Structures are given as C-alpha cells and as structure tokens.
Amino acid sequence: MRISSIQAFNNGVTGIQRNYSNVTRTQEQISTGKKILTPADDPVASARLLQLSQEKAQYEQYSSNITAAKNSLTQEESILNSVGNVLQRVREIAVQAGDAAQDKTDKAALAKELAEREDELLNLLNSRNARGEYLFSGNLGKNVPFILDPATGEYAYLGDEGQREIQIASSTYLPINDNGKVLFEDVTNANRVTTSKTPSASTASISLGLVEDKLAYDSTFPDATLTATDGFGIRFTSPTAYEVFDLAAPAVVLSSGSVDTDATTSDVIRYAGVRVAIDGIPATGDSFAVNRNPAVEKRGMLNVVADLRRSLEQAQDSPQGGLVVRDNVAVALSNLDAVLGQVLQGRGEIGARLNVLESTESFNEDVSLINTAVQSDLQDLDYAEALSRLSFESVILEAAQQSYVKVAGLSLFDQLR
Predict the structure, then answer these.
(1) Is the Cβ–Cβ distance between 82 and 347 less than 8 Å?
(2) Which of 8, 79, 171, 274 is the most buried (most CB within 10 A)?
(3) CB-based contacts of 11: which residues, under 8 Å, 6+ apart?
C-alpha cells in the first residue's frame, strides 16, 4: 500500500488535533467541576439535569411561599390573641356593669373604657400584613374590612368571604388569611327573638329573650313560617300560674308552670331553648309573646361591644333602668362568649396550618436534598479520575506531536543520496 506524503501529514495533524481536543475538554471539566459540558456529551443525563434544575427552582419558590405564609399566619395569630385579650377585658366590664350596686356614673365610666376597647378592636380587625394587604378582608386585600356607619352607629363588613391561598408544594395550596365575616361577623346572636307584653294594668314585664340552648331552639321553637310571626306566648291563668302556647294556634298549650308573688325577684321561664324573666307581679289574663327575629340571627363582634356601650351610656338610676342594663349585660355576656369561641377556633385553625407548613417544609427540604444528590451524581466531576485521565491524554498528545515531527522529516529523496 502506498501512502502519500500529504496523507501522512494529514493523519499526523488529525491525531494531534484529536488528542489536543481531549486534553482541552478534560482541562475544561476540571476547571468547571462538571463532567457534562454540552448536551451532546450525554443527552439523557442533560435532559434529566434540566428537569432537576426546573424542580429546584420550583422548590425554592415553595420555600419562599412557606416563609411568606408563616409570617402572615403568625401575624394573624398574634392579632387574634390580642383580640381575645381585649374581649376578656370587655367581658370583665360587662360583669362589673351587671352589679346592681353600680350607679349611672359608674356605668358611664365603664362605657368610656368600652369605647376605647371598641376602637382598639376596630384597629386590630383592620390590620395589614407586610405587603400592605388587610388581613381580614378575604380576597379583597385592598379593601378596609370593617367600617362604622355614622348614620346608624352600626359596623359593616366590606370584605368578601374568600381566603387568599398560596402554593407550598406541587399539589398543596394553603390559606394564609381568614375573612372577617367568618371570624367576627357570623356569630350566632343570643338575642335573636323579640319579646313583648299585651298592654295591661299589671306591673309585670318581660325581659329580653335569651337563646340558651341552640339545639332545643332549632328543634322545638314554633316554626310554621320561619318568619317574625313564629313564636310562643305566655298567658297567666292566675297571678302565679301560666301556660305556654303556640302563637299560631293559641288553643294548643305547649307547657305550663308557676311563679311566686315576690315582686323583688325575677321569675325565669324557659321554653324551646329560650330563657325569659318575668319581673313584677303578673295579673290574671296577662299575656306575653316571644317571636322569632330573623333579621338579627347573627351579631358581629364590634356591634356586640357597641350595643353594650350604648346600654351603659343610656343607663338610668331607676328600677326599670336597672332591668334594661341587666338584660343587655346578659345578652352581651352570651354573645361575647360566642365571639371568644369563634376567635379560639380561628387560632386553632391557624395552628393547624402552621403545622402543615412545618411538615411540608420538611418534606420539600428532603426532596430538594435528594434532587441535589441526583444532580451531583449526573454532573459533578470525579477529580481523581479526571486528573489521571488528563495525565494520560497529555502523554498521548506529546507522543503524537513527537511522532508527527519524525514523520514530517521523512522523504524519498533521502533514499537517493
């Protein structure tokens, strides 16, 4: 076989270039610490590395979301704790106001403190998070959740009933706030009935109605139409004996009982989960009505406090004034207990979400650690092997260069000398 000079030169140059390329590639691997420099080096591993890189970015975002969720929920829990403390103080004031020894001046002083507590609660309920969004306005983070209507003196909720959620894992979304309607507005009103007396000459009067037993109220209270006309009546067949009857069917006696003749004490009558008190001395033929009041089935926390404050501001030093305060205090205490229950339930739900955040964060960290290990196996260089290979490839390159020099010096003319 004949080998031309140009072919010998080309083979030598090609060998040097190939070996130089190998040395250069190994040096680049050592300098970068990566064994895959281009997708062509290992297409399957490169595709897997791209997927792992995308997952890493996702888990970094999940980590940021978890931190934001923790901050928001921790702030909300702190605010609810403060709300609970204020409500406890309001409850103490209500108990003080119920003391018969308190006169009009004392009640006015308590009303002033209630006004301050009322403002404090309003500020707490209108708190913002670190992003400037209102915590308790549902999805309407830019809307002030609670405002006072100067015309009516009633507080209104302007948020919605939604919850803002954030993604903390591939298929896990977690609420990072609670709307104020559920926490502070949807509180069952203990005074969701009206009471009245058919005019008569007796001194007897009836107190505000207080729903003590929700189960009995829902199952037993007359509900022919579920409107304000539903209810039961109390008629006295003698100064001490009474009958409870259905207002829709007066002839039907639902219950009966008796009271004493001591005008200085209140006689409590309970029926269908509702408690009322008869004050004074009833006369034969006296009749009282207890009606459903659908318009006030719920009573918000701020309005509960405002109702108590107004009652103390308007208190009178008279027997009748004392009865009005007594009734309003009883309603306020019952509603405050219901509100406190709502707040405690809200704190419990926040605690559960914080637990979910902790466990999800731990899971995400474990997955990220595994992904990092897989990435390392796929792309990180074995320096000992690479340095050994570089030494070997350098020797080959040097040999190729030296052999090329010798081949380049060969010529047929040397055989003619």
Answers:
(1) no
(2) 274
(3) none
- Name the DSSP class of 294: G
**What are the domain boundaries of the chain?**
53-188+335-367, 193-297
Whether the CB-CB separation of 82 and 123 falls below 8 Å is answered with no
Count CB-CB contacts under 10 A for residue 394: 16
Give the separation between CA 187 and CA 90, rounded to whole angstroms.
17
State the average pLDDT for the chain: 86
Q: Nearest to residue 107, comparing CAs of 328, 267, 281?
A: 328
Outline where 173-251 has alpha helix (H): 180, 214-220
At 86-99, the pLDDT tens digits run 999 999 999 999 88
Q: What type of residue sits at position 171?
A: S
Give the whole-angstrom CA distance, residue 373 versus residue 49: 11
Q: Is residue 209 within 8 Å of residue 274, measured between CB atoms? A: yes
Nearest to 378 by CA among 56, 18, 27: 56
- Listed ranges 10-19, 96-105, 185-194; the one with the highest mean pLDDT: 185-194
Question: What CATH superfamily is the domain 53-188+335-367?
Answer: f41 fragment of flagellin, N-terminal domain (1.20.1330.10)
Contact at 8 Å (CB) between 301 and 121? yes
Q: What are phi and psi of 137, to 5 degrees?
A: -105, 15
Average pLDDT over residues 323-341: 94
Report the chain's terminal Cα–Cα distance, integer Å: 24
Cα–Cα nearest to 166, from 356, 338, 300: 356
Q: What is the pLDDT of residue 365?
A: 86
Looking at the predicted structure, is the pLDDT value of residue 355 above 60?
Answer: yes
| pLDDT tens string 395-406 | 776 766 666 666
The secondary structure of 42-98 as a DSSP string is -HHHHHHHHHHHHHHHHHHHHHHHHHHHHHHHHHHHHHHHHHHHHHHHHHHHHHHHT
Count of H-run helices and E-run strands, the chain = 8, 13
Query: Hey, what are 296's tokens?
Result: 């006030």
Q: What is the DSSP letter of 248?
A: T
The β-bridge partners of 249 are 246
Map tokens 């001395």 to a residue. 281
Partners of 290 in beta bridges: 195, 232
- Predicted TM-score of the model (pTM): 0.78
φ, ψ dihedrals at 76, nearest 5°: -65, -40
Place of tokens 């196996």: 377
DSSP 416: G
Mean pLDDT throughout 33-43?
67
